[in-house]
User: Fold Rhamnogalacturonate lyase B isoform X2 from Populus alba x Populus x berolinensis.
Amino acid sequence: MEKVDASLLRWLTLLIWFFFIVKLTAASRKIFQSENGKSLGVRLHKHHHRMVMDNGLVQVTLSSPGGDITGIQYNGIQNVLETRNRESNRGYWDVVWNLPGNHIAYDRLKGTDFNVIMEDEDQVELSFKKSWNFTNGNSSAPLNVDKRYIMRRGSSGVYLYAILERLEGWPDMDMDQIRIVFKLQNDMFHFMAISDDRQRIMPMPRDRINGEPLAYPEAVLLTNPTNPQLGGEVDDKYQYSCENKDNRVHGWISENPPVGFWMITPSDEFRAGGPLKQDLTSHVGPTALSMFTSTHYSGKDLNTKYRNGKPWKKVLGPVFVYLNSISSLEDPTTLWEDAKDQMSIEVNSWPYNFPQSEDFPSSDRRGTVSGQLLVGDKYISDKPMWASYAYVGLAAPGGVGSWQRDAMGYQFWVQANEEGHFLIENIRAGHYNLYAWVPGIVGDCRYDVIIHIQPGSDAKLGALVYEPPRNGPTLWEIGIPDRTAAEFFVPDTYPTLMNKLFINQSTHKYSFFFHRFN
Assistant:
């Protein structure tokens, strides 16, 4: 009987410890509550030259009226951003621009006017504006800028978006890059995650400084890194680029304390170049980026030229900066899984119904387009075939394939089902062409009719037949026309010039190769 009692006692002890750990883990998650079980309301603290938004989970400090994020307090960490940097060099928007024929310039889009757009316990939205006029000359980009920041009750992060505008008659300009930049504590955030199969411990900034520069400035051979296991590898921020369609969440993990910092982009509608456009994500710094427009991998062919005094306005975002945490007893990489879950929540909530700008339409002020895409190729089949899993999208009216060079308008893309049926929802009001390409089929498709989208409109296009370009039957073929080079042989890099992340990685090996040599 004593043995039975002792055994039961051991089991009871283990059970008590199990429930204690579960409770401790739950308490350490990102959603904290007040004593009555409800999440804390949002508060705005106004100070001279700074504004602080606080919802009990995250506290975000912004410079005023400039509108830079100077501090993010979370889970007992006073500031997850790099405090050794100047306050203006922690979390900010910037553009790369130039007047035609002039040198490239940078503009941090500093606000000159601050306003509280909304303030209650459920949500705070702040606006930091700057206006341009001809008296500014070449000192700043000829843009009107309205940077917005939103904090919501129970939300473990902050939403960011901006309205950029050019008025009629303004001077010509090129705008090659628009982005958001966050620079995190480099003593804390060492593990970077871009996707399920691209995650690694990253070098320190000083490792790049002390390394050997290679063929171009971004590529550095790590000769004596802080972490000896990284010795002999090449670090290059372009190794971590990603196509727009796959770039939904990326970021950084700190192991002590176990905290994640994530950039979530719930929609591609405001990004340049369509779903295949590649761009930067995160890189050594530790730096996390949200890229809206850039000439990376395209050069000036991506249409970033603003000419002839035409007016233009575009809303970039919202994107979501998300922070999460776990207990010290859990595997820090589970923060990545939680970030993916949060990303799915944000994607399924798009378009958001809480931004206060009239320039960001909610779902009921948008339209829908549906139809079926078929392929008519008599050399393959006497009857039209399903355009199985075709990519179908709406973009600004233009020539065949022009969506790949469009940076000024909005784009809306989906992937059709096996039978070629597609449904594009939540389209902004405007005028569009419908474009498509079909994996395994040569060429670009464009539906010649201009599609006019009004709020609440539902355009049913029926069956559309794409006839790919041909001069006769296929005699032989190298590769698969699917917009990748995945099936081509890519040789291994030199053992002394490699990133171990890509060893035995067939999925990204070809991509890594072309990043380096294109």
In short: The first strand starts at residue 43 and ends at 47. DSSP finds four helices and 32 strands in the chain. Residues 2-28 form the longest helix (27 residues).
